[in-house]
Design goal:
Blueprint: E1 3-9, E2 12-17, E3 28-33, E4 36-38, H1 46-53, E5 60-62, H2 68-71, H3 74-81, E6 86-87, H4 92-97, H5 103-109, E7 118-119, E8 124-125, E9 131-136, E10 145-149, E11 154-156, E12 169-170, H6 175-186, E13 192-195, E14 199-201, H7 204-227, H8 232-240, H9 245-249, E15 254-255, H10 256-263, H11 268-271
Parallel strand pairs: 4-5, 6-7, 11-13
Antiparallel strand pairs: 1-2, 2-3, 3-4, 8-9, 9-10, 10-11, 12-15, 13-14
The chain binds zinc ion.
Length: 272
Protein backbone atom coordinates (compact mmCIF):
# COMPACT_ATOMS: atom_id res chain seq x y z
CA UNK A 1 0.00 0.00 0.00
CA UNK A 2 3.01 2.29 0.45
CA UNK A 3 3.28 5.64 2.18
CA UNK A 4 0.04 6.79 3.85
CA UNK A 5 1.10 10.03 5.46
CA UNK A 6 4.05 12.37 5.94
CA UNK A 7 4.86 13.98 9.28
CA UNK A 8 6.90 17.01 10.17
CA UNK A 9 7.38 18.53 13.61
CA UNK A 10 10.29 20.96 14.00
CA UNK A 11 13.37 18.92 13.03
CA UNK A 12 11.60 15.55 13.04
CA UNK A 13 10.15 14.08 9.87
CA UNK A 14 8.37 10.79 9.42
CA UNK A 15 6.41 8.55 7.07
CA UNK A 16 3.57 6.22 7.84
CA UNK A 17 3.71 2.88 6.04
CA UNK A 18 1.80 -0.38 6.23
CA UNK A 19 0.66 -3.30 4.13
CA UNK A 20 -2.95 -3.03 5.28
CA UNK A 21 -4.81 -0.07 6.69
CA UNK A 22 -6.76 -1.24 9.72
CA UNK A 23 -5.86 1.52 12.15
CA UNK A 24 -2.98 2.13 14.51
CA UNK A 25 -2.06 -1.50 14.99
CA UNK A 26 -1.33 -2.04 11.30
CA UNK A 27 0.44 1.25 10.50
CA UNK A 28 3.98 2.18 11.37
CA UNK A 29 5.72 5.55 11.38
CA UNK A 30 9.46 5.73 10.79
CA UNK A 31 10.88 8.97 12.22
CA UNK A 32 14.17 10.68 11.50
CA UNK A 33 16.00 13.74 12.83
CA UNK A 34 18.68 14.63 10.33
CA UNK A 35 20.85 11.54 9.89
CA UNK A 36 19.43 9.69 12.93
CA UNK A 37 16.58 7.21 12.35
CA UNK A 38 14.36 5.92 15.16
CA UNK A 39 13.14 2.36 14.50
CA UNK A 40 13.32 0.77 11.08
CA UNK A 41 9.72 -0.09 10.14
CA UNK A 42 8.46 -3.50 8.98
CA UNK A 43 10.36 -5.50 6.37
CA UNK A 44 7.41 -5.79 3.95
CA UNK A 45 7.54 -1.97 3.59
CA UNK A 46 11.28 -1.69 2.93
CA UNK A 47 10.82 -0.26 -0.57
CA UNK A 48 8.98 2.78 0.85
CA UNK A 49 11.18 3.17 3.90
CA UNK A 50 14.28 3.10 1.69
CA UNK A 51 13.05 5.84 -0.63
CA UNK A 52 12.26 7.99 2.44
CA UNK A 53 15.70 7.38 3.94
CA UNK A 54 17.48 7.88 0.61
CA UNK A 55 16.38 11.53 0.63
CA UNK A 56 19.38 12.44 2.83
CA UNK A 57 22.34 10.91 4.64
CA UNK A 58 21.71 8.20 7.27
CA UNK A 59 24.42 7.75 9.92
CA UNK A 60 22.61 6.24 12.87
CA UNK A 61 19.71 3.84 13.54
CA UNK A 62 18.38 3.51 17.08
CA UNK A 63 16.01 0.63 17.82
CA UNK A 64 13.48 0.58 20.68
CA UNK A 65 12.90 -3.21 20.82
CA UNK A 66 13.06 -6.44 18.85
CA UNK A 67 9.46 -6.59 17.51
CA UNK A 68 9.32 -7.00 13.74
CA UNK A 69 7.45 -3.75 13.00
CA UNK A 70 10.22 -1.78 14.76
CA UNK A 71 13.30 -3.76 13.75
CA UNK A 72 12.24 -5.53 10.55
CA UNK A 73 14.37 -3.36 8.22
CA UNK A 74 17.37 -2.89 10.50
CA UNK A 75 19.40 -5.38 8.45
CA UNK A 76 18.54 -3.64 5.17
CA UNK A 77 19.36 -0.22 6.64
CA UNK A 78 22.63 -1.56 7.98
CA UNK A 79 23.62 -2.83 4.51
CA UNK A 80 22.30 0.16 2.52
CA UNK A 81 24.04 2.84 4.60
CA UNK A 82 27.01 0.92 6.04
CA UNK A 83 26.05 1.36 9.71
CA UNK A 84 25.63 -0.96 12.69
CA UNK A 85 22.23 -0.32 14.31
CA UNK A 86 22.13 0.38 18.03
CA UNK A 87 19.68 -1.67 20.10
CA UNK A 88 18.87 -2.36 23.75
CA UNK A 89 21.22 -4.99 25.19
CA UNK A 90 18.22 -7.21 25.97
CA UNK A 91 17.18 -7.15 22.30
CA UNK A 92 20.51 -8.06 20.75
CA UNK A 93 20.32 -11.86 20.93
CA UNK A 94 16.85 -12.01 19.36
CA UNK A 95 17.81 -9.48 16.71
CA UNK A 96 20.85 -11.53 15.75
CA UNK A 97 19.15 -14.94 15.74
CA UNK A 98 15.73 -13.86 14.46
CA UNK A 99 12.58 -15.47 15.82
CA UNK A 100 9.47 -17.18 14.54
CA UNK A 101 6.92 -14.47 13.76
CA UNK A 102 3.33 -15.36 14.73
CA UNK A 103 1.03 -15.77 11.69
CA UNK A 104 -1.00 -12.56 12.05
CA UNK A 105 2.07 -10.41 12.68
CA UNK A 106 3.83 -12.02 9.71
CA UNK A 107 0.87 -11.17 7.49
CA UNK A 108 0.75 -7.55 8.67
CA UNK A 109 4.48 -6.76 8.92
CA UNK A 110 6.59 -9.54 7.46
CA UNK A 111 9.36 -11.05 9.59
CA UNK A 112 12.37 -9.61 11.30
CA UNK A 113 15.46 -9.99 9.12
CA UNK A 114 18.24 -11.03 11.54
CA UNK A 115 20.70 -8.22 12.16
CA UNK A 116 23.96 -7.62 13.97
CA UNK A 117 23.69 -4.67 16.38
CA UNK A 118 25.74 -2.78 18.92
CA UNK A 119 24.39 -2.05 22.40
CA UNK A 120 22.93 1.39 23.11
CA UNK A 121 25.12 3.56 25.30
CA UNK A 122 23.78 5.39 28.38
CA UNK A 123 23.79 8.50 26.22
CA UNK A 124 23.56 8.79 22.48
CA UNK A 125 23.86 11.97 20.41
CA UNK A 126 22.27 13.63 17.42
CA UNK A 127 24.52 15.14 14.75
CA UNK A 128 23.88 18.60 16.31
CA UNK A 129 25.38 17.35 19.60
CA UNK A 130 22.13 17.17 21.53
CA UNK A 131 21.69 14.26 23.91
CA UNK A 132 19.45 11.22 23.47
CA UNK A 133 18.88 9.27 26.68
CA UNK A 134 17.65 5.67 26.30
CA UNK A 135 15.02 4.91 28.98
CA UNK A 136 14.34 1.25 29.74
CA UNK A 137 10.55 0.81 29.92
CA UNK A 138 9.75 -2.93 30.17
CA UNK A 139 6.21 -4.31 30.21
CA UNK A 140 5.13 -4.42 26.56
CA UNK A 141 8.40 -6.28 25.95
CA UNK A 142 11.31 -6.94 28.31
CA UNK A 143 13.70 -4.96 26.11
CA UNK A 144 11.49 -1.95 25.29
CA UNK A 145 13.59 1.19 25.48
CA UNK A 146 12.29 4.67 24.70
CA UNK A 147 14.34 7.74 23.74
CA UNK A 148 14.25 11.00 25.70
CA UNK A 149 15.79 14.16 24.24
CA UNK A 150 15.96 16.58 27.19
CA UNK A 151 17.13 19.65 25.22
CA UNK A 152 14.34 19.34 22.69
CA UNK A 153 11.81 17.94 25.19
CA UNK A 154 11.02 15.10 22.80
CA UNK A 155 10.06 11.58 23.79
CA UNK A 156 10.12 8.68 21.31
CA UNK A 157 7.79 6.21 22.95
CA UNK A 158 8.38 2.90 21.11
CA UNK A 159 5.32 0.82 22.07
CA UNK A 160 4.78 2.40 25.49
CA UNK A 161 1.89 4.62 24.38
CA UNK A 162 0.28 3.43 21.07
CA UNK A 163 -3.26 4.65 21.91
CA UNK A 164 -5.17 6.56 24.65
CA UNK A 165 -6.77 3.36 25.91
CA UNK A 166 -5.44 -0.13 26.36
CA UNK A 167 -8.03 -2.58 25.04
CA UNK A 168 -6.10 -5.83 24.74
CA UNK A 169 -2.91 -7.37 26.00
CA UNK A 170 -0.51 -9.90 24.55
CA UNK A 171 0.05 -12.92 26.77
CA UNK A 172 3.72 -11.97 27.19
CA UNK A 173 2.96 -8.40 28.31
CA UNK A 174 3.17 -7.42 31.97
CA UNK A 175 0.66 -4.75 32.99
CA UNK A 176 2.27 -3.93 36.33
CA UNK A 177 5.57 -3.28 34.56
CA UNK A 178 3.82 -1.18 31.91
CA UNK A 179 2.34 1.05 34.64
CA UNK A 180 5.68 1.31 36.46
CA UNK A 181 7.37 2.24 33.19
CA UNK A 182 4.75 4.92 32.48
CA UNK A 183 5.28 6.33 35.99
CA UNK A 184 9.03 6.44 35.39
CA UNK A 185 8.54 8.31 32.11
CA UNK A 186 6.10 10.78 33.69
CA UNK A 187 8.97 12.04 35.88
CA UNK A 188 10.83 13.20 32.73
CA UNK A 189 10.56 16.73 31.41
CA UNK A 190 9.19 16.35 27.86
CA UNK A 191 6.41 17.84 25.77
CA UNK A 192 6.07 16.10 22.43
CA UNK A 193 5.59 12.37 22.19
CA UNK A 194 6.47 10.62 18.93
CA UNK A 195 4.54 7.37 18.73
CA UNK A 196 5.31 4.98 15.85
CA UNK A 197 1.66 3.92 15.66
CA UNK A 198 -0.33 6.92 16.93
CA UNK A 199 1.66 9.80 15.43
CA UNK A 200 2.94 13.07 16.89
CA UNK A 201 1.24 14.08 20.15
CA UNK A 202 2.08 17.65 21.15
CA UNK A 203 0.95 17.38 24.76
CA UNK A 204 2.49 13.98 25.07
CA UNK A 205 2.97 13.93 28.80
CA UNK A 206 -0.72 14.65 29.48
CA UNK A 207 -1.68 11.95 26.96
CA UNK A 208 0.53 9.39 28.68
CA UNK A 209 -0.86 10.36 32.09
CA UNK A 210 -4.42 10.00 30.72
CA UNK A 211 -3.57 6.55 29.39
CA UNK A 212 -2.31 5.52 32.83
CA UNK A 213 -5.48 6.84 34.48
CA UNK A 214 -7.61 4.90 31.99
CA UNK A 215 -5.78 1.69 32.87
CA UNK A 216 -6.10 2.33 36.62
CA UNK A 217 -9.83 3.04 36.27
CA UNK A 218 -10.34 -0.14 34.28
CA UNK A 219 -8.37 -2.14 36.85
CA UNK A 220 -10.36 -0.60 39.70
CA UNK A 221 -13.66 -1.61 38.08
CA UNK A 222 -12.34 -5.08 37.26
CA UNK A 223 -11.26 -5.60 40.87
CA UNK A 224 -14.68 -4.53 42.16
CA UNK A 225 -16.39 -7.11 39.95
CA UNK A 226 -13.83 -9.71 41.02
CA UNK A 227 -14.60 -9.04 44.70
CA UNK A 228 -18.26 -9.58 43.84
CA UNK A 229 -17.34 -13.07 42.63
CA UNK A 230 -17.00 -12.68 38.87
CA UNK A 231 -14.24 -14.45 36.89
CA UNK A 232 -11.87 -12.62 34.55
CA UNK A 233 -13.62 -13.72 31.34
CA UNK A 234 -17.00 -12.57 32.62
CA UNK A 235 -15.50 -9.24 33.75
CA UNK A 236 -13.82 -8.81 30.38
CA UNK A 237 -17.13 -9.31 28.59
CA UNK A 238 -18.83 -6.80 30.87
CA UNK A 239 -16.15 -4.07 30.70
CA UNK A 240 -14.65 -4.55 27.24
CA UNK A 241 -17.27 -6.49 25.27
CA UNK A 242 -16.88 -9.59 23.11
CA UNK A 243 -13.41 -10.59 21.94
CA UNK A 244 -12.87 -9.49 18.33
CA UNK A 245 -11.25 -11.26 15.37
CA UNK A 246 -7.72 -10.50 16.60
CA UNK A 247 -8.23 -12.77 19.58
CA UNK A 248 -9.34 -15.62 17.32
CA UNK A 249 -6.59 -15.06 14.75
CA UNK A 250 -3.91 -15.09 17.47
CA UNK A 251 -5.38 -18.06 19.32
CA UNK A 252 -6.01 -15.85 22.35
CA UNK A 253 -2.42 -14.56 22.45
CA UNK A 254 -3.63 -10.98 21.99
CA UNK A 255 -7.00 -10.45 23.66
CA UNK A 256 -9.18 -8.49 26.09
CA UNK A 257 -9.29 -11.26 28.71
CA UNK A 258 -5.47 -11.09 29.09
CA UNK A 259 -5.82 -7.43 30.01
CA UNK A 260 -8.44 -8.09 32.69
CA UNK A 261 -6.46 -11.03 34.07
CA UNK A 262 -3.47 -8.71 34.53
CA UNK A 263 -5.67 -6.03 36.17
CA UNK A 264 -6.84 -8.23 39.04
CA UNK A 265 -3.65 -8.60 41.13
CA UNK A 266 -2.49 -4.96 40.75
CA UNK A 267 -1.87 -2.90 43.89
CA UNK A 268 -3.54 0.21 42.50
CA UNK A 269 -2.57 2.58 45.33
CA UNK A 270 1.13 2.00 44.76
CA UNK A 271 0.80 2.58 41.01
CA UNK A 272 -1.02 5.95 41.14
ZN1 LIG B 1 6.22 -3.95 20.17
Amino acid sequence: MGVRKHYQYQDVIGIKVGRINQGINTNFIVYRMGDTVIDSGPSNQWKYVKSFLDESKVSQLLLTHHHEDHSGNAHYISKAYGIIPKAPKLAQTKLKAGYKTPVLQKFVWGSLVPVETQALNDKEYLADGSIIIPIHTPGHAKDLTCFFLPEKKYFFSGDLYIAPKLKMLRSDENLEQILKSINKVLTLDFNVLFCPHGGVIKDGKAALKAKKDNILNLADQAQEYHKAGMGFKEISLKLLGEEDFVSKLTGGNFCKANLIKECLPLDLESLK
